[in-house]
Design goal:
homodimer, alpha/beta, Peroxisomal Thiolase, Chain A, domain 1, nine-stranded mixed beta sheet, two-stranded antiparallel sheet, Thiolase_N (chains A, B), Thiolase_C_2 (chains A, B), isoprene biosynthesis (chains A, B), Thiolase (chains A, B)
């Protein structure tokens, strides 16, 4: 089977980006990725656009981007996996190369959520479950979904509001060093505790923002990668799983089952021991759409035992120097969460970390040369876990 | 590389299907495909949902379908390539198996366009190009786009309105034998000529309808396919290309460039000579969203020389018994065009034709054991061309 490497990365400034249109936003990331890899549009065999859509008035975002970025007439498609859209786009390009049908593929993740007024943007997020039954009939919204998990875990495991606050504080801390982050401002526990409650116990500072942004990576087959770069970052494996649409059909509210299953799949292919998984990685990007989601991610990825995720946060074990540095680019919380871009942004962050190209103040020590990205769509409706390495997987 | 076969097919009744919801509609096709292949949901490694979306109030259609069809927690994603969405879904599953990451994959194409009121449905179709510039500023709509091609070809090649009528008459003729077709009614030339003009020269009878429907295929690796069926239909190759968003950036209005390029790519991989391509195939499904699109497809696939596509129609060469039977399931024109389902429906029709399981009155003679599907998104914004065969491609 063909090994696949990341050979170029690009990232736009995340934030309120109504200064540009969708295709201009995508181009900021595409241009950077082309320059970094020293490639030209004509070298790209295909491109995939991760764009959940609905916020922009352009329904054919892949095509509009293809024309503007001069990627037409290359083959393309747009993919959606809710908030895991970017990882789904990565998957398609990865498999096209693995299957031998492309040598070089461009993955573009982009979302411009401020194209819609905020109430529309928020209603659309709320629909990211079972619209008809749980949203329309019971009025459950997105913060409400995650609040169910947070209250259950507070009752069962003794997790405190302050534990959630630790996640917000850490991610805002690292976001302050990331020039691409939407929020580059550190926060303190008292600010966190005083912030407005959205859905108890989740407060404004527990939630990621509505964001515009783009990220891009260029993938290449081993044969090509070796010719064009001396610093490939390999995709070792990816696991992907789904969950029921209705949360009422879930067994409990203490973990994101789909994410745990996706991690198990990725670990199995990469021969990683679940219990000791954190020993394999130098850095992790996890899906902190709400702070509670990051705490569950620790457990779903095997970084902490079930019920002990919040202790990792309490002890500061996910800062640089701790057990495993997590979301040291600011995470969704501070960097922002432009839906379609997030999964691709995670791949960009991991790649740059492994190559010692991270922003000042955020660089981890690279010992094992491996990183992991955990990207969840909806409330565990989709989950994608991807493992990256400086070492070729088939070596 | 792993060879990939279709081992099961399913198809819902196409039409106004507000008698069911989106997931129930999908299930009609999924159930049939599982039964035909003698497989159970637990056997499926992953599923891909082709659903352009926007008409239904459920944004996470793949997840809602996954829960209802009991496919969760298998990995999934939703893909969109405008009217070629179904073929994009097929591509993702095909490549996952080819890449060795799945053994059995389910492809579901579904759209329930009547969930939105007709003016909304039609506006959304109109946006399938460059919304901001050509739709919003110039008022171009979907029939208008294709009318540009029709008038240009009438002026340049002497094509008559009656030539377009021949396509409508043929496709309605075959649709009358297809119990799954939205329209099962034959039409005559005088009815065609009297039908209301939508965008000259295109009339109501030149246009495919707004349709609800679902189709599904199950793909398997060679190893698995051989165990579960004695009648696999192999995917030989697929070409996919894109076009500019703005029609004002196209060179001319006589052919769908992306489709021709996609055909060339598919033919190259399958070692098919473009000039004589029609000699290789027993049956073709082409994208007749408007009658003019079918005529251009004849040329873009090499069935007729450039400028002579309408002569094939005039001479009745695309009926069963002619040069090459095209759209003998009724095509988009009579069978209907539920956006996300269409490409998958094409794969179902070709598979059943090659296996002598077509509807009475529509079965072609199978001599070479090969078929081709041509699926276009927008006005050549996307194009996917797929080749199917009774013979294993690597044999």
């Amino acid at each position: 089977m063909v090994d696949v490497a990341i050979v170029g990365t690009g990232h736009s400034k995340f934030g309120n980006r109504t200064d540009v249109n969708l295709q201009e936003l995508a181009w900021e990331a595409v241009k950077q990725a082309l320059e970094e890899s020293n490639l030209d549009q004509k070298d790209i065999d295909m491109f995939v656009v991760g764009n959940a859509g609905g916020w922009s008035s352009e329904p054919l975002s892949a095509i509009v981007i293809g024309e503007y970025c001069n990627l037409a007439p290359k083959g393309t498609m747009r993919v959606e996996a809710a908030c895991a859209t970017g990882s789904a786009a990565l998957r398609i390009a990865y498999q096209a190369i693995k299957a031998g049908d492309a040598k070089i593929a461009m993955v573009i993740g982009v979302e411009q959520m401020h194209q819609s007024p905020n109430p529309v943007a928020i209603e659309m997020m709320g629909r990211a479950g079972n619209y008809f039954w749980e949203f329309e009939n019971f009025g459950l919204t997105f913060p409400g979904y995650y609040a169910l998990y947070a209250t259950r875990r507070m009752a069962k495991f003794g997790m405190k509001e302050e534990d959630l606050g630790q996640i917000a504080i850490k991610n805002h801390y690292y976001g302050s060093f990331n020039p691409y982050a939407m929020f580059q401002k550190q926060i303190k526990m008292d600010e966190y505790m005083k912030s407005r409650v959205v859905a108890y116990p989740l407060k404004v500072y527990d939630a990621c923002p509505i964001t515009d942004g783009a990220a891009a990576v260029i993938l290449a087959s081993e044969e090509v990668a070796k010719k064009i770069t001396d610093s490939p970052v390999w995709i070792v494996s990816q696991g992907f799983k789904s969950g029921t649409a209705n949360l009422s059909k879930r067994d409990d509210f203490i973990s994101i089952d789909a994410a745990r299953l996706a991690a198990e799949e990725a670990y199995k292919k990469a021969r990683i021991d679940f219990e000791n998984s954190w020993r394999y990685f130098d850095v992790a990007e996890v899906h902190d759409c709400f702070t509670i989601a990051e705490i569950m991610a620790y457990e779903d990825l095997g970084f902490a035992k079930r019920g002990e995720g919040h202790l990792l946060a309490r002890e500061g074990q996910t800062y640089i120097g701790g057990r495993i540095p997590v979301n040291v680019d600011g995470g969704l919380k501070a960097k922002g969460h432009p839906i379609g871009a997030t999964g691709v942004s995670m791949a960009v962050s991991i790649t740059r970390q492994l190559l010692y190209r991270a922003h000042k103040g955020t660089q981890v020590d690279v010992k094992n040369g491996m990183g992991i990205a955990h990207n969840v769509g909806g409330t565990g409706h989709y989950a994608y876990v991807t493992i990256f390495s400086l070492k070729k997987p088939s070596a």
